[in-house]
Amino acid sequence: MSEIRRRQGEGDDKNLESAESDHVDSEDDKDLSATIPTGTNKSLPVLGELLQSLPERWRNWVIRGIFTLVLLGMFTLIIYVGPLALMITTLVVQVKCFEEIINIGYAVYRIHGLPWFRSLSWYFLLTSNYFFYGESLVEYFGVVVNRIDCLRMLVTYHRFFSFCLYCGGFVWFVLSLVKKYYMKQFSLFAWTHVALLIVVTQSYLIIKNIFEGLIWFIVPVSMIVCNDVMAYIFGFFFGKTPLIKLSPKKTWEGFIGGGISTVFFGILLSYVMCQYPYFVCPIEYSETMGKMTMECEPSVLFRPDTYQLPECLHSILQFFGLPYTFSCYPFILHSLSMSVFSSVIGPFGGFFASGFKRAFKIKDFGDVIPGHGGIMDRFDCQFLMATFVNVYITSFIQSDSPQKLLSQVLYLKPEQQLQLFHMLKEHLENINIL
User: Fold this and answer.
1) Do 369 and 429 share a domain, yes or no?
2) What are the pLDDT digits (tens) for 224-247?
3) Which residues cross the membrane (predicted)?
């Protein structure tokens, strides 16, 4: 009997432990809509009074349209100010998107009494930015920074310092673990790192795209905006056929109309921007001028070239008296690839975000932009597009420019630079260039 009682006691202990564990770490299906603010139906009080007589559908249309124009105006102003303003804006957007994602994590796991955990998330954000933006600083401004004695060590050992900072956060996290919150803490730890992967890494790629030339930033961003706006317009007026269950309001009519509009818009915008060196020249540090410049001889991508259509079409074109050659900027052909991606694959960034929001029963990531939602609601497709553009540039476009190679040579010690000079001179003499 004592054996039976002992086993029953053990069972009770296990049940109690299980119940305690379930009480602490189980996740119910709580609706987070009351916790996370929504901006889709939000409007300014004055605007709400003016539009109160309209049906809700048209009221949302007007509010969304007004703030879309406001956002486009702000975007144009930032472009006018210059690349530095674009980079600062990218950083601000990154921080806000990270905040919105992390706030959802806190609402889901409902950990409010753990010391330092919110601070840990922001610490990892700071560490990630130090690493990625430090990489950009070393790559594009290394020659300048290397001349400042107090910063030379940071440049030389940048990755080591970044790793040490991350290790500090890792140790901090382990020391902050609380027994009955293990599952939630590790879940939020993973949540934070996924947020960093989605937001910080993509913003770093956006910065790299800007340095390749403003056209590589403005055209893709504008394509996503055009696709979003035109898909909304076509869907609003003509939408009847549902596209995907994750977003019931998305329709095939909007998807197709937005895609076709984006292709034509991308061609037109690319044609206009290819004519201005300000947009097509990469941002580089000039050793002779002692400053960052956006002046260059445009590359072959931005100079008109003649192309011949496939021979199988020649007879047909001749029959109608049409030429079988055409002239255009090579970049326009590349813009077709970007426009197709932004129209076909880009919206899936929005569908992914919709699935994420449905999983946690929230309507928007935030309420920053009336009629639109949070910052992340507007940049979900942009992050995916930025990654594609960077991969596209690296795979099909990018080649090391003499200016970039020179900046790397200047990192060498004087005797190494002299050795490289003699090696290059000998090579050029052997191939009869000198």
Assistant:
1) no
2) 999 999 999 999 999 999 998 888
3) 61-81, 121-145, 157-176, 188-207, 213-239, 251-272, 331-353
Q: How far is Cα 142 from Cα 135, in angstroms, rounded to an integer?
A: 9
Q: Write out the residue range of the structural domain in which residue 411 sits.
A: 400-434
In a domain, 173, yes or no: no
Give the Å distances, CA to CA, from 51 to 60, 63, 69, 196, 321.
9, 9, 17, 40, 56
Residue 149 lies in a domain: no
Same domain, 310 and 295: yes
Tens digit of pLDDT for each residue in 268-323? 999 999 999 999 999 887 766 667 788 888 889 999 999 988 888 888 888 888 88
Work out whether the CA dihedral 178, 184, 187, 191 comes out positive or negative.
Answer: negative
Number of domains in the chain: 2
What CA–CA distances, in Å, run from 206 to 138, 226, 260, 333, 385?
A: 17, 19, 25, 21, 9
Element (H, E) at 327: strand 325-328
Q: Which residues contact 10 (CB under 8 A, 6 or more apart)?
A: none
Q: Tens of pLDDT along 343-365?
A: 999 999 989 998 888 888 888 88
User: Hey, which residues does 431 pair with through a beta bridge?
Assistant: none
Domain co-membership, 57 together with 195: yes
Question: Average per-residue pLDDT in the chain?
Answer: 84
Residues 371 and 409 in one domain: no
Q: Are both 388 and 327 inside the same structural domain?
A: yes
Same domain, 309 and 337: yes
Rounded-to-integer distance, Cα 158 and Cα 165, Å:
11
Of 384, 389, 390, 375, which Cα lies nearest the Cα of 352? 384
Spatial separation of the C-alpha atoms in residues 15 and 19, rounded to whole Å? 6
Q: Give the integer Cα–Cα distance in Å for 200 and 207.
A: 11
Is 170 a member of any domain? no
Instruction: Count Cβ atoms within 10 A of the Cβ of residue 429 and give its class: 0-12 exposed, 13-18 middle, 19 or more buried.
Output: exposed
Extract the tokens encoding 189. 């730890």
As a whole number of angstroms, the distance between CA 97 and CA 374 comes to 8
Q: Pairing relation of β-strands 291-293 and 305-308?
A: unpaired
pLDDT in tens, 32-56: 655 666 555 555 566 666 677 777 7
Distance CA 217, CA 214 (A): 5
375: Cβ–Cβ under 8 A, 6 or more apart, which residues? 93, 96, 97, 100, 365, 366, 368, 369
Q: From the centroid of its chain, how far is CA 134?
A: 18
pLDDT higher than threshold 50 for residue 25 = no
Task: Compute the distance between CA of residue 64 and CA of residue 41 in angstroms, rounded to an integer.
Answer: 9
- Contact 430/310 with Cβ under 8 angstroms? no
Q: Are residues 298 and 424 both part of a single domain?
A: no
